[in-house]
Amino acid sequence: MIQFNCDGSLSTTTKWTIKNCTSTRCSFEIVLNEKVMTTFSELYIPSRTLAYGVYQLTLTVIMIDSPNLKSSSSVYVRITATGITANLVQLGTSMITRGGQQDLLLDPGTFSVDPDEATFDATKWKYTYYCRIYDLYNLPNLQGILLSIDDSRVDPYNPSCLSNRSGNGTGLIFGNLTSSPNSSLTVLGGSLQLNQMYQFMVYMENRKNSSIQATGYVLVTIEVTHPQLIAVGCVISPMCVPNLEFQLLNPTTQVALFTVCIGTCTNLQSIKWNIYQGSDNSTSSNSTQWILFNNTILYENIWFFGTNTSNFTATDQLFLNNLQISLWRFEVVYTFLSAISTSALNFIINQPPANGSCSINPLSGTIPTLFTIECPNWYDVDGIQDYSLYAWTTDISQRTIIAFSSEYNFQVRLPAGDNETSLLNLVVYVRDLAGSVTQVNISSVNIIAD
């Protein structure tokens, strides 16, 4: 007769270890901050904890009563550099207004952002500035090679931005010439034409690795008055991903913006937000035409909140009810006693993954059954990040995540249904690298409890 002795404990301990890897081996163990918990089955490492490189992450599980019984599994992770955000003005504002006699300061060395560092190191970069008269001309170039703002050569078809230019960049002052050359540019008052809009661009190149680059833009309207500079930014910065002249926006998220008045901002009379829809006019003047969204008052405190304050929110319903619109501008107008200041932040809708499908096989089984999920042919310009499988029985609000994978085909075991039904409803979320999601309903399956 066989007898079982089950007096021993089946409790286990778990421990994560992290080793830095070279091209031949992983031998140097990393000592993490005490706030990183390494004794749970899940491991969370905050950003900026690990330096660039390859790491071996190993989870070891040991039986408490039998320490010789243990098992380990490892995964390898490469930490790479995150692209910087090149900002010419504070907060990456898309459009500002300046007076004709006011100096214009463009300072990417100060206002750019490196997500991998606490502060931006301006000394690591080279800076080249370009400018064009917006709506009328392209960036000055000769045979397709762009002419920088201080280049004395002339493009006969796309004139220089500087109205008083008389050779070699008159009206320009480059800053920080010793520590970080050209990391800022001041366009002196009187150099730009009144009642004209200009687009400035900075091209930044890493000094040690020329393949690492960044580009930033700002539109500047020149007026007769002396307006204050108003910066516009996103309250939650990771939800606004820079994309050249725009911020990338997922249509299923809200836009929450705030403003900062730079300088002396007394005698403020009012604040007003305007919303514009954009249409690409690249075939004619390489610009965007903006049309005022007329229903702002109708949807105030429904879609729009804070239309007369420094903080403004537009809910996702604005975008979900206007899916045909891909370009949006949120403009703030500060009215002072002596001048009006206008600034804006421009957004482009991040289109979700498309052109694919998802299926499951088999369509019935028990709890131990392995089901295969296949989601082939999905495409997104940003790339596909992962596929998440959710399930529910009768109430979709009670759906729970079952599995996720970076591969388009994967296998899962599914839970049994509830007391009312054995039918399990399934949906796959296909997500791109910028966070936009396509939901795909797949066939329901019957799960029979053993």
From TrEMBL:
Its main location: membrane. One of its GO terms (biological process) is calcium ion transport. It is found in: Membrane. It holds the Pfam family REJ. One of its GO terms (cellular component) is plasma membrane. InterPro entries: PKD/REJ-like. Residues 2-442 form the PKD/REJ-like domain. This is PKD/REJ-like domain-containing protein. It comes from Adineta steineri. The lineage of its organism: Eukaryota, Metazoa, Spiralia, Gnathifera, Rotifera.
